[in-house]
Amino acid sequence: MLAILWKDLRIELRTKETLAALLLLGLLTLVVLSFAFDPTSALREAAAPGVLWMAVIFAGTLGMNRSLLREREADCLQGLLLAPVDRGSIYLAKTAGNFLVMVAAQLVLVPIFVFFFNLPLWLTAVRLTPVVLLGLLGFAAVGTMFAAVSLRTRAREVMLPLLMLPLAAPLIIAGIQASTALMAGQPFADVAHWLNLLVAFDAVFLVVGWMAFEYVVEE
Amino acid sequence: MAAALEVERLTKRFGRTPALDDVSATIAAGEAVLLLGPNGAGKTTLLRCAATLLKPSRGTVRIAGLDAATHGADVRRRLAVLGHESFLYPDLTPTENLAFYARLYRIAAPAARVETLIERLGLRGWAQRPVRTLSRGLVQRCALARVLLHEPDLLLLDEPFTGLDAEARALLSTVLREAHGRGTAMLMSTHDLALGLDLCDRAMILAGGRLAWQGPVAPADASRLDSDLRRLSGRAAA
Predict the structure, then answer these.
(1) How far is the first Cα of chain A from the last one, in angstroms, to the nearest whole number?
(2) Of A64, A128, B230, B237, which is most buried by a Cβ count within 10 Å?
(3) What pLDDT is attached to residue A43?
């Protein structure tokens, strides 16, 4: 598993294809939506968590597609499937790689989000970090799974969000609700139920993905 | 000694269309077998079933006596596939690609093994360049290094000579002959009869997903096999 993860990270560090796409789309989303609201309006502040999650979702979906498409070049996925490794561990490695790339993108996007919405940097970062990390992990778990499913379909760029986003709805709702409450200054204890939902979502999809990946990639 | 590959009543359907229909065949350890047949005869499907990349609709595949359906990882450790695609990451160098596969196959002393193969296949001058920048012939040499990395008992070759120049074909042929000499069994599908007959001791002809003929072959059989194949292609087209 570590060999596959390291290989993915090495390719990403060399090409920066996925990271650049994630950053560009995330930045675009943040800029467009930050200018959509009146700077003096209270609505802007209320909408801020939704804007951040929208950037995460749009950029994340794009990143998922890229990471699996890389395995299609020169039929490398077949090379992985021919290796004497548990196919579930291929899924875990791809999920970990997607998660790390999305975390790297958020390290740039969250400060930009804070700047556009005029929020306190450190306070926002500290309060949002657990929610964003749990959200990204779940998003990577479900996204990697469905990116593999859509890999064999013709309109894969369209299929991935269609398959993934309805299933990721609980994660998105929990992420937005927890972020909204935490940014409004509520203590972590008040959002424990949302955080628990995120943890449960992550655990369920990691296990399901690990167990089902073999059948998903099978022809 | 267990056969390198044994398929028994192998059937593979795609929807209602049978790509392989009740095929039974054995390749002894160390034997090299040429797989012939017109386009659509089921050659690639047979190779992919043998490689565990396709699950049979019916029948069994055994590699070195192990059932591929129940011993997937053990079976994959014993075989390698070389086809038109290299399975190499274009953004990594040949050395990085081979080191990656060496880790997947848990090869002892992987760096030394990679260096040996880089040297043997004449890749020294290109070892640190991304695969994306290499010619088709060089990429196929790297792919050959990849399949030899874990010293498989069985090589499954699907049109390995396609797109190669004369020099690359000669090298590939030499390296395959060496591997065969060391006891590696081979099942090779190729349209290049001369090269195939030069490397293999026996041939199997598939037609319409069924095993139409099998028997020992020699380079002198080229014209006879060629006319057999043309006849089968004509029948398939009709």
Answers:
(1) 22
(2) A64
(3) 80
Considering Cα of B127, then B130, then B134, then B138, what sign does the dihedral take?
positive
pLDDT in tens, B62-99: 999 999 989 988 999 999 999 888 999 999 999 999 99
Which positions in chain A touch B131 (Cβ < 8 Å)?
74
Q: Six-digit token pair at B91?
A: 């953004």
CB-based contact A219 B51, cutoff 8 Å: no
For A214, which residue in chain B has the nearest alpha carbon? Answer: B53
> ipTM, 2 decimals?
0.88
Kindly determine whether residue A79 and residue B88, on different chains, have CB atoms separated by under 8 Å.
yes
Q: Do A75 and B87 touch (CB under 8 A)?
A: yes
Chain A residues near residue B107 by CB distance under 8 angstroms: none
CB contact under 8 A, A218 and B55: yes
Rounded to the nearest 5°, which phi and psi values hold at B229? -65, -40
Q: Are B160 and B190 in contact (CB under 8 A)?
A: yes
Given a cut of 80, whether residue A21 has pLDDT beyond it is: yes
Q: Which residues pair with B33 in a beta bridge?
A: B187, B202
Q: A48-97 pLDDT, tens per residue?
A: 888 989 888 888 888 888 878 888 887 899 999 999 999 999 999 999 99
Return the percentage of chain A with pLDDT > 90, whole number.
47
Enumerate the residues of chain B whose CB falls inside 8 A of the CB of residue A4.
104
